[in-house]
């Protein structure tokens, strides 16, 4: 799904305020603290609360493996002024027989700053411009209007509602479904700055 350009851990996307870079083992403590926050974890399908360290270790290894294989792209969000300091995650994951799906989370202290919109927009631009993507899907818990606003601000179109499994919550929960296709993306703006060297 993703080209050679993204398959090396020196790959990054730079935005006005962020570096989007590969997650590393050094991000473990930040992920434990930020994704393990009950308010963040409650909106995520696969993040248990409490969040065990071994789950984070497995996540980082899987993300790096998928990035290397080009089957997905998971990037850590870090402020440009502190590129080693993870504040969230944004990803595009593929699965057999399904359109690639966007996912993301941001540490609670950064909510309401527009950083997630900036990160999602940059990753979508990279997906369509450099990976040749045709369509992206996304979903947001119906109880999470801020996540829906991020998707709408990045050009995603609401396509309906449904129920999705949230294994870490132990149940299926209602979600709003979204879609962004190449044609719509082409009307949205410019490409991000991509950097291949650290």
TrEMBL record:
Q: Name one Pfam family in it.
A: Acetyltransf_3
Q: Which residue ranges does the record assign to the N-acetyltransferase domain?
A: 17-157
Organism domain of life: Bacteria
Descriptive protein name: GNAT family N-acetyltransferase
Name the species this protein comes from.
Methylobacterium longum
